[in-house]
Amino acid sequence: MHSRQRTYIDLHVHTWASDGTESPATVIREAERAGLAAVAITDHDTLAGLDEGGEAARGLALEFVRGCELTARGDYDPMHFLGLWLPREAEPIEILIRRQQERRAARNALMLERLAGLGVPVTPEELHEAGRGETRGRPHMAHALVRRGVVSSVEEAFRRFLGNGAPAYVRMDTPDPREIVSVLKSAGATVVFAHPMLIDCPEAWLFDTLSDLKQQGLDALEAYHPDYTPEQTRHCVDMAQRIGLALSGGSDFHGAVKPGLKLGHGGAGLRVPYFVLERLKALRRAQGLPE
Q1: How many angstroms separate the CA atoms of 169 and 163, rounded?
Q2: For residue range 200-239, what is the model confidence (pLDDT) as tens digits?
Q3: Domain 3-97+174-286 matches domain 105-162 at the CATH topology level
Q4: Which single residue of 11, 157, 192, 196 has CA 20 to 30 Å from 81?
Q5: Does domain 105-162 have CATH number 1.10.150?
């Protein structure tokens, strides 16, 4: 079945290259089995799973989009950006990612110190063993705490120790959002602001921030996300139209980390239609960029 005969896409997916539980090849096989038209692997601060994902997609009736997810500092909550259609040679992004990984490692060390001070030590070796890829972070700490029997679930680990405001939490030093947008655009990526409706901020601030980032090269908003209410989806679509941004969307799939989510599904009926991908590709053609 040709991908254009398929109906739905998923442009926000994580693998074990960052904090997911499935391999890139498994993600591709599951996306094909689910009958998706397209899937983007968008791991946090790494490109490590993209070659495996691309190879697994070769010959399938499934469009594979090379991507990543990068975190920037915000006035309220952290801001997340997806870069889609990343080129194979992406040195500016790779440099930025190396810096992000160094910052993440420094934050991990501080959080492990705080956990030890709370009487629940997690060793660097345990943190390393909790993941499969090159990126480690709070989800891996949570899994280590579950394995130790300190907590019964990842959710409890975040609530008691690791979440924003919890006693072991350390805010990560992250780049300015303009820098991330600029670097992604300079590499030829399509830049998507991920899950904007989840930021706890004044609406006017969000609108002004997105309008400013549009001038820096921001291309789209993630209007379809499993944590949105229907009203939030409609509001995001309206905001994108007013600012002049395209739409994107995905399940934010992480495998067993988020057991209620499936590829192409976002829990309570979320489905991202293929026309979203068509419009993003049309935008790239208008910008003179390859699909």
Answers
A1: 6
A2: 999 999 999 999 999 999 999 999 999 999 999 999 999 9
A3: no
A4: 157
A5: yes
Eight-state DSSP code of residue 257:
G
Tokens of 105: 């490692």
Residue linked to tokens 């705080």: 114
Per-residue pLDDT tens digits for 36-71: 999 999 999 899 999 999 999 999 999 999 999 999
Angle, helix 177-186 to helix 203-216, in steps of 10 degrees: 30
Q: What angle do CA 232, 194, 72 make, to 5 degrees?
A: 130
**Domain spans of the chain?**
3-97+174-286, 105-162
| DSSP-assigned letters across all residues of 76-129 | SS-EEEEEES--S--HHHHHHHHHHHHHHHHHHHHHHHHHHHTT----HHHHHH
Q: Please give the CATH topology (third level) of the domain spanning 3-97+174-286.
A: TIM Barrel (3.20.20)
Q: String of b and e for 18-44 (b: at least 16 CB within 10 Å)?
A: bbbbbbbebbbbbbbebebbbbbbbbb
Bridge partners, residue 8, by sequence: 273
What is the SS3 string spanning 19-32?
CCCCCHHHHHHHHH
* Strands of 79-84's sheet in order across: 246-249, 220-224, 190-194, 79-84, 63-72, 38-41, 8-13, 272-273
Q: Where are the alpha helices (DSSP H) in the chain?
A: 24-33, 50-57, 91-117, 124-129, 138-148, 154-157, 177-186, 203-216, 230-243, 274-286
In this structure, are residues 45 and 104 in contact, taking their beta carbons and an 8 Å threshold? yes
Global pTM reads: 0.87
